[in-house]
Each structure stands twice: as structure tokens, then as C-alpha cells.
Amino acid sequence: MSPVDWWIVAIYLALTFGVGLWLSRRARGSIVDFFVGGRALPWWLAGTSMAATTFSVDTPLYVSALIARRGIAGNWEWWSFGLSHLLLIYLFARLWRRAGIVTDVELTELRYGGRPAAVLRATRAFLFAVPINCISIGFVMLAMRKVVEALGLLPDLSGWVPGDERLWAVVALSIFVLAYAGIAGLWGVVATDFFQFFLALFGAILVAAFALAEIGGIAELKAQLAAAGRSDVLGMVPRPGSEALPFGTFLAYLGIQWWAFRRSDGGGEFVQRLLACRTEADAERAAWWFVWLHYVVRAWPWVLVGLVAVVVFPDLADPDLGYPMLMLRYLPAGLLGLVVASFFAAFMSTVSTQINWGASYLVNDLYARFIDPDASAARLVLLGRLASACIVAAATVAAFFANDIGALFRFMIAIGTGPGAVLILRWFWWRVNAWAELASMLAGFAIALCSYLPAFGAMEFGTRLALTAFGSAAVWLPVMWLTRAEDEATLLEFYRRVRPAGPGWRAIRERAGISPDLPLREALLRTAGATLLLFGAMFALGGTLLLEPRTAALSVGVAALGGGGLWILRTRRALP
After folding, report:
1. Widest CA span in the chain
2. Confidence band (pLDDT; 50, 70, 90) for 99?
3. I need a surface site. Which of 26, 56, 352, 560 has the fewest CB within 10 A?
4. Which pLDDT tens digit goes with each residue over 545-571?
5. Phi, psi of 279 (to 5 degrees)
6. Phi, psi angle pair for 238, to nearest 5°
7. pLDDT over threshold 80, residue 425
8. 438: exposed, middle or buried (C-beta count within 10 Å: 0-12, 13-18, 19+)?
């Protein structure tokens, strides 16, 4: 990189840290201020922060590698989660905000009672804050290491530092992220997320535009793919018999993954933003804004760069490196520095979120709940900062052992599959109890780990998902029926605070004498309309960019149908 590029990166990092220092005063009052921003986030800031959290340095590399290996259709590995994110808008966003808690794990002792609820809360808090969270940060560090390696950003430091000097550079950047995340709390994280998201998006558009211009545009890209015998990568849906993406795995993405995963009702970082919104209506708007940014606005620049990488680097040994190598090949001085800064932005937005979120579990759901319930606000905030440092240290260890971004992403999906159905049902059926949720989580985790043992061989990923989801159900369903239901007082307290809809709460609802603000049937109809609108808009944009007029026209019709249905439903019954 040229000196101009380095100056751009340095100025960006300095501005980011300055914002963290400026917002540090907002994080000093209490853990509510530190972890949920004093419940004062506007919807547009919360939604953008949710999108920035999912836009890390690993995601463009991951998408580029997916396309090289499985074509555009391979993106259903993450597109399928759009179904659960649409449920978040109409089924869960308002309920989470209404619960008035600090972390999603805290809900366990609102929804359930007694020792089982306490055991469940402690188990979830530890598993999500330490092993799962630290592995997640670890593969983000891995992606940053690959970017550093591909761009040649470091001089030779061998002999000065032990091990891989490129990874130590990422560790140094993580410590920088820790400094501003630990000082400023959630406000500092989301404020910098806002700028980081749009800088990272601009960087992705720049890479796509320059790469396409260099090879002659979309038409020439498609011609070169055809000449190389790779036209199959342009398919948005896999065909039966496809070797790149087995059709059974595709069906598992659509039919199992999104509802069986541990984030089926939102997920920790997303819920943290919803809990930080000013009102319930703002929480719903934030969820919609996130979904739109994540699936419609941001997906296609990555896809286009991935397609160019297939043409320019057809025999690349590590497809994860295609994206940064295109940056280095096509971007001029100045713009390269801007895009590298956007990669730092993507890295920092995700890692800062993971740090703050993981620390919230350790402090709110373990220390304050089980060790020192009378701890002062100042002590809890200090412990939040110390917990943040411990999480970064553990994540660094995970990064040393990571190598393949896509494989690690699928591993994280696998070990998180199993509890999703229980997490959805607990909101809509009184009979779900703490033992059922605990059994689903532990059984899914154990089955997924066992499926990676050599005895199971090279199992297709769709088969692994089905085995984990239904194997977990075979455990938690008997556990639920063989253990006692929650007592009526606990159920009544939960219902009065949250007011969930559905026939599963009919008896409790009659005792409480309070009706939900939106019937379950109405919420599901809105979700169906939103599904047509979202995926129609996403594929309409994709069809237009890829010069596929039939796909674009059909998708516009689907989006119009969904949008029209939503408009009718909202005018017929307006939410407060």
C-alpha cells in the first residue's frame, strides 16, 4: 500500500477511537447504560448496528469462497436465516422489548421458575459468552489475518514476535477494539457501527465496480464464465443432482436450519439492540431496517466480486483470498486505503459487538445473578470491562487454531442447531419448561459434536442438520412431558409482562384478563407478506444486475404481491 493508503487507515482508526472516548460518559451510570444504552437507541441506529454486526471482515471472503465452490446458490447457507429474521420483526421484536431485561439469557428466569431456570440461565450464559462467542470472534480474526496476508500489509517481523506475525497484528487491532468497546459501552459500539457499516458497504461497492470495469462489465463476465465452463455458478437456486450444492443440503437450509438454530427467536446481539430501543414500535422498525440492509442492499456487491474472482483466479488454492486479491489487483492508491479501512471497519464493528455482548452475559447473568447480587453499579461496569478483556484473550487462542472460514461457519451452525424449536415455542405455549430448553441445547450441542467424529465419515451438511435437529427433539420432547410444568404464578407473571399471542396461552390469558396486541394469525400473515417482499426485492435486484430480465420481472411481481398484502394487513389493523 502507498503512504496515502496508510494515512487514510490511520485517520479512520483515530476517529473511531475518538468517538469511543467521547461517548464514554454514556456508559458510566449502570449496566443498563453500559450494555443496553440506557434503552434510548433510535430505531435506525439500532437496525444499522444489527446489520454492521453481521458485516465482518470474514463475510465478503466467505461469500466469495462460497461462490467459487458452490455458485450463487451457495448463499442459501445464510439467506435461509432471512426466514427467522422476518419472524423476528412480527413475532418477537415487540415481545423482547416489552420484557424489559438486559440480556436475552435473563428471559429464562422470567419465563421459567425455580432451580431449573437458574441452572439454565447459568449454562446458557457461560456457553454463549465463552466457547461459542470466542470461537465466533476467532474466525473473524482468522479472516482479518487472511486479509493482512493477501495484501502484504506487514513487514517481516520474524524473530521479533513468536508464531505468525500476521496474527499478532490482528491481535493488536483487537486490543484497540477492546479499548474503545470497553470504554464506551453499547453507545460507543453502535455509534461507530453506523459509520463502519456504510464505509464497509461503500468499500464493497468500490471493489465490485472496479473489478467489473477491468474485465469489461457484466455481459463480458458471463461470457467468460461460459467459456470457462462455469455458467452453473450463476444459478440462484440449485438443481437436483448438483454436486456443488447437494439438493438435500439446500432443502435442509430452507426446511430445518432457520428454525432449529439457537438464534431462531432473535439471537443475543440482535436482541441486545432491540432491548436498547426506545419503544416496542422502534424495536420492530429496527428489525425491518436490519433485514433490508442485510439481505437486499448488501448481498450483491459481494456476489459480483465473488463471480469476478472465479474468472480472474480460477485455480486459487484458498478461495477465501479471492476478494482481497482483487482489491490489491484493481484498486488505485487512495481508494485501496479506503477499502482497507472499510475492512478494518467491518472487523471492528463485529468484534466490538461480540465483546460487549459476551461481557453482558458474564456480568449480568453470572456475576450479578449468582456471585454478588448486591454489587454496586460502578463495580459491575468495571467487571464488564475486565470481562471484555478476558473474552478477547480467549478469542485470540481460538484464532490460532482456525484455518477455513466456511468450514468454521458451518461448524458454528451445527453446534447451535437443536434448541431453536424450543426457543420459538416457549413464547407461544405455556407447557414448555426450563428442563426442555436445557435438554434441547445440550443434546443438540452433543449430537453435533459427535457427528464430526471419524466414525460418521464425511457426512453431508444437510444430513448433519437433520440429525442434530430431530435428534435433539427426540430428547427434549420426552424430557418436557416427564418433568413438571412451570407453576401458574410464574406463567401469569410472564404473560402479564410480555402478553404473547396464540392458543397456547389461552388458559393463562383468561386468568390474567389481558389480550395480546396482535393475534398470532395476523403476525404470521404479515410474516408471509414480508417474506415475499424481501426475497422478491432481493432477487429482483440480483436479476437486474446480472442482466436476467425474466428473473428480475418475476421477482418484482413477487415483491409487489408481498408488499401489497402487507399494506392491506397494516391498514386493516394498525399497531399502536
Report:
1. 72
2. very high
3. 560
4. 999 999 999 999 999 999 999 999 888
5. -140, 170
6. -70, 150
7. yes
8. buried
Per DSSP, what are the bridge partners of residue 41? Answer: 277
Name residues whose C-beta falls within 8 Å of residue 557's C-beta, 6 or more positions apart in sequence.
536
Residues in Cβ contact with 199 at an 8 Å cutoff, skipping those fewer than 6 apart: 12, 338, 341, 342, 345
Structure-block grid coordinates of residue 404: 477455513
Q: Do 444 and 469 contact (CB within 8 A), yes or no?
A: yes
Print the SS3 string covering 331-370. CCCCHHHHHHHHHHHHHHHHHHHHHHHHHHHHHHHHHHHH
What backbone phi and psi angles, to 5 degrees, belong to 213?
Answer: -60, -40
Does the structure show a pLDDT above 50 at 576? no
In whole angstroms, give the CA distance from residue 454 to residue 465.
17
108 in Cβ contact with 128 (< 8 Å): no
Q: Which of the pair, 203 or 293, is modelled with greater confidence? A: 293
Can you tell me whether residue 540 is helix, strand or coil? helix
Residue found by looking up cell 485517520 in the block: 11
pLDDT digits (tens, 9 = 90+) for 449-475: 898 888 776 788 888 999 999 999 999
* Identity of the amino acid at 88: L
CA distances from 223 to 65, 192, 214, 293 (A): 21, 41, 14, 30
- Give the integer Cα–Cα distance in Å for 285 and 481: 38
Residue 230 and residue 68 in contact, taking contact as beta carbons nearer than 8 Å: no
The cell numbers describing 256, all together, are: 430445518
**Which residue(s) pair with 261 in the sheet?**
417
Cα 71 to chain centroid, rounded = 22
Bridge partners of 152?
none
Confidence of residue 436 (pLDDT cuts 50, 70, 90): very high
Burial 379-396 (b: 16+ CB within 10 A, else e): ebbebbbebbebbbebbb
How far apart are the C-alpha atoms of 264 and 80, rounded to whole Å?
11
Instruction: Express each pLDDT in 364-416 by its tens digit.
Output: 899 999 999 998 888 888 888 888 888 877 877 776 666 666 677 788 888 88
When mean pLDDT is compared across 43-57, 169-183, 334-348, the lowest value belongs to: 169-183
With 0-12 / 13-18 / 19 or more C-beta atoms within 10 angstroms meaning exposed / middle / buried, residue 407 is exposed
**Calpha distance 107→121 (Å, rounded):** 8
pTM given for the model: 0.87
For residue 203, the model assigns a pLDDT of 83
Q: Quick one: which of 270, 261, 322, 219 has its CA closest to 93?
A: 270
Give the chain's length. Answer: 576
Is the pLDDT at 128 greater than 50? The verdict is yes
